[in-house]
Amino acid sequence: MNPAFAAVALALSLGQITPQLPVLPPITREAQVTYVDRSGAVLGVRGGRYAPPVDISKLPAYVPAAFVAIEDRRFYEHRGFDVIGIARALASDVVDGRAAQGASTITQQLARNLFLSSDKTMERKALELVYAVELEQSYSKPQILGLYLSRIYFGGGAYGLEAASRRYFNKPAAKLTLREAAMLASIPKSPTNYNPATEPEHSMARSRLVLDAMVDTGAITDAQRKKALAAKPRIWVKAATAPAQYFIDWIDGQTRQLVGAPRQDLVVETTLDLPLETAAAQAADAALVRYRKQKVEQTAVVAVDGSGRVRVLIGGSDYITSPYNRAVDAHRQAGSAWKPFVYLTALESGLTPDSLVTDEPVTIGRWTPSNYEPGYMGQITLEQALALSVNTVAARLADQVGRDRVAIVARRLGIGSPINTDPAMALGTTLVTPLEMADAYSSFSNGGRHTGLYGIERIRTAGGQVLYLRRGAASAQVIGNPALNDLDRMMRAVITGGTGRGAAIPGYDIAGKTGTTSDYRDAWFCGVSANFTVIVWMGRDDNTPMLRVTGGSAPAEVWRGVMGAALKKSKPQPIPLGPPGMVRAPVAPPSESLPQTPVPYTALPSTPPPPPAPSREPIDDTPSLPPH
User: Fold this and answer.
1) How far, in Å, CA of 247 to CA of 304, rounded?
2) Contact at 8 Å (CB) between 196 and 216?
3) pTM of the predicted model, to two decimals?
4) Which positions are annotated as active-site residues?
5) Largest Cα span, the chain
């Protein structure tokens, strides 16, 4: 410590000099937008770095006491600076890690944080001291401590006590235990060295010093200290809400479009289901570990309910290292997950699941598609062709019904990306995002309605004034019967006896489709239950191949984990059949090779009939696509 600075502080404390204090600069803070899930749990914050001042009265007494004990034990006695601490600092260097206090008080630290830089100059230090004195004259001790706790940095991107509590312990600060409070109080001295997530041993060791200091100051008893030391807090190495940051990124821009740049703190109530988001992240993480040797690098997961509410949105394996949102922004080939659009077009043109088609060599123009496995099955049903993801049948169907019609059907269901209509489009060469695939597949789950996807329910000020409230949007009937019921029946067969058997969940009515692109660059599983849709994509950012990862393997496992967690919250129920008697008229002149008159509606059974057994073992569905 500079002796001159110490002399100035000592003179101030003794009243020997009474300088004219400058006007205290205004304390400013940018507005924050807090995003909460459907149950009110905090997902994350955007906007300003700092939260409002902490209300000390709403914390357990040991929480502020921990910071006072280790940072400034004479906080409630001094007038902004600690003369005893200054004298001690002059006599001896402060030893790193000791509970003894240095010369910089909490009030001085706050003054530096609020108004000054960290430059180690005499001018800055003197101004810091003066501002500390003025802060003490302008605010109460609890107010100063509350401001301090809202501004200090705790590492891991967490500014302020509340953010740190949620980051490391996944709980509000009001629910911190004594040991957890001591661990957080350990961090400000060195957010890198005492970070609980990355340096657990150093954090534990310093928290013992904090607890010792709390005993010395009388904040806790020795018995409380021993009990706290015996506790083993759960530390979240990765923030519990980290996967949800992809979702917040998606709706943050929408928030500003709806209410403009925030001038006051806002709360955005969203559609996300945080427990389900967590379950989805755990399922995805487990699959990424399990399939790492097969060069799986990234995943994206989207889950929506039948009304279009986005319940899960995960855009990658780790938001901290890669915030690029693959669920929203990554356009990848759909592979055979595109085939339901082809088959729906054929069903709307008059075919049925029991219509016979032929698996045989086919050439369209100069393109000859092949199946994943060698050989051909000959005559099979339409249902078997989809269940086994037979490429030759899908290619011929798209050519017969018209690829332009397939494109129109896909667009009608919610595919917004450009759709190619070359011969290989039937096998999924169109580039799509997981989010728009969720939009399109959702109509298979809810009786054929298209609702559009959304993530914001309400926006209000922190004081409760409602700035935006979503009204129920009108939905459009985009699939009629019997085409809808027939397609859902065929997609059930994908899971019960086809390429998607790895997604099976006994006791529930589910339907879906696998998708794998050439050289295993993309793997999908897209599927539905009653009024719920889950889309899973897995691949690599550089578009290089994985090692034989198909849609029926890793993505199906993740899908089963996500859908299984969602279904636990409801009783088993059948996928809605949709309004009876509706048949979608052809959207373009039909091909002469298919029936010209739509099949008339007939009564649908109350429970879907079981699909016929496939003619051979299921195969993977990697289409043979043109180079890309």
Assistant:
1) 13
2) no
3) 0.87
4) 71, 336
5) 104
